[in-house]
Amino acid sequence: MSTVTENLYLLTPEFLLAALALLVFALDLVLPESRKTWLAWIGMAGLTALAIFSVRMLAGRTESLYGGLLAVDQFSLFFKVFFMGLGVFIILSSVDFVKQHLSHPGEFYGILLFSILGMNMMAQARELVTAYIALELLSFSLYVLTAYARGNPKSNEAALKYIIIGAFSTAVLLYGISMIYSVAGSTHFDALAETLSSPGQAGPVLWVGVAFLVAGLGFKLAAVPFHMWAPDVYEGAPLPVTAYLAIASKAGAAALALRLISEGLVPAREVWPHWQIILAALAAASMLVGNLVALAQRNLKRLMAYSSIGHVGYLLAGMAALNIGGGMAANGIIFYLVGYAATSLVVFAALISFFNQTGQEEIADLAGLADRQPLLAAAIAIGLFSLAGLPIFAGFTIKFYLFAAVAQGGFLWLAGLAIFSSLISLYYYLQVIRQMYIQPVPGTAPDASGHGEEPSHTASHGQAVAGHASETAAAALRTPTGMLLAVVVAGLVAVLALGVYPGPLLEAIERASQVILPGI
Amino acid sequence: MSLYLFALLAFLTLAGGLGVVSTRNVVHAALYLLLSLLAVAGIYLILFAEFLALVQVLIYGGAVVIVVLFAIMLTRSSEYPRISDNRQWPLALVAALGLLGVLAAAFLAAPIQITQLQSPDFTALSGSLFTKWAVPFEIASLVLLVALIGAIIIARAGKNER
Amino acid sequence: MTLAILQAFDASRYAHNWTAVALAGAVAVAGMLFMFAASRLLSSRRPSAVKLTPYECGIPPAAYNWSSINIRFYIFAILFLMFDVEAVFLFPWAVVFLKQQALGNPVPFYAMIIFLGVLFFAVIYGWKKGVLEWQK
Questions:
Q1: B38 in a domain, yes or no?
Q2: Domain count of chain B?
């Protein structure tokens, strides 16, 4: 019994993160309304400190806790630092937005911290039940965050759709877990691989269980055909939450899926390689549907939603290639996540800044942004070029690496399809850039009808809405405020750095993926 | 004997489930759900899992259905709303039957090895719950906390609203 | 995670106990049905407008007024749900934690303390946010 608790201190970062979140909630109860921004700073400082602490404490260690329930290793350390860093940047981007548009600012940061804790546990889980409960922690936090703009009916609708579909997908996931347990006798990922490999035991029940598992995770990742919730939810949620959904929840689900596949399915590749085809089919569908439907979008958030579905398609293609490609594919997936996160942060931070100043989020509203606010326009343009995969930006390196891994993993057709869909995506990204750089600034035409969402009642100090928007639109927008500017600049630096010199990052990723796919 | 009991309870579960999706009155649907959940508790009892049956009755029958009924009561406009006709029900029926087909085929094709009926020792179950499974247990407490805070944020009338 | 630990399990005793519970439940249900059936069969039915109005302690019924205090019920229901789950976890804990501590393993005790602490914090939070107020 005592051996079970010997290494409990390895979980100190998680305990401290939970304590930080509780601290934020507690302080929220006593701080007056005007000081609530301190909570954001406390959250950020705490996350940074925890990230550094985790690295100092856990670098180089590979341990398994609780008889294989949790794994504290380089893979989980990498993702923990990644998630916490992401949290810092998301909080930075959202401080102004929350102050202007949302009530209950304190809890926003607390719930965000809990969701990061959920993602940390997902990266550490080596076993299905722990993964499930961590996924639930993440999902509940996201449901609440999606509903945060209470006065906005779109936000409520988005949260309702998200909750119902999320609950249904969790039920499917649980049913799959129960079927796997009934055959394998254990919920560990290793046991899944073992049972798949032993022909006496593996049977249709196990395969259907794995299929349900894939379906449940596919919902969380918003892969096609489980993606129907994503556009509405992304459109209705407040912008920082959309950014968080697009980046972090995908990264968390992808980390979990990566470990699940590497430890649970890849070792059985001699006996049961069929899961590859399933993942490849999902990948192809996601790439095509995501990029094709994005061509028709008029709202920026919906556009980003469909584009993120396309990106999930690329991630799934990498996961399908894990069988033979092994290490390169795993590296490619993790690298893709980091690059995608940096790029999306740039785009979303710029969009948040734009929304803070104008309250608009349609593509048409970006008209003439290059004249009104060159820095924002440049940031969005670079971000979109990177998402499309143009060279010297991170998007090119990550796509090159991942598609090469996919091709090497035996899925040449999938890599070709991925390149084709990247080309398609270039079109709609260019649409946005065209709006910014080529369209004229809306002059005196009061074009700002109420198509942009009205912020909630507690919105706007000094914010011109609707009727006067044309005036402020025509006038030059202010440069983004300090925090958003910091995020945009940091993101741009990351995008360029990853595009040109990804070496050090790739080494860290290599160490991470060596843990879950040893020797492949 | 337990076969007949199981047949009865399975029938009640399925009848409850069918009642939930086919009735027009939303409160009736909640009560059919209660029937279904209690029948599942009975199935746990047949399987000698007393603690699980207790949990099922307490949490599902005792708390979840109450919350559902409260939500229904609080969101009705003038009287208890009728569930509107969902035009897609034929498609849903086909999908459900397809799922049933797949699951039945899977379960019948390769029967799961049947063990002796056994009862998990409650002390051992509890012991492992708090030693080996302590971390998921703590995360569950955080899930509850987030759910409560979310409910308070979303449902509470703010000071400057409404 | 193979959990099943066989003990000397007495299936007939088990069935015996639960049959008793089922019988008690059946008698309760039967009694209730009997009362409904009896009142149906034995009473006269002559409804009038006054007789059909809902009973409110003899006073004329007030109009339905379900407006502003509703949400409080819901928050209470959610709080009840949370503490119900906590109670469900307390049952197995009560069986186990003293013996574990005697064996030198303090983790179950502190695990539950943390759990209780988190839910206690939830109540404090609700209290400070005013959800426990009954009046507006």
A1: yes
A2: 2
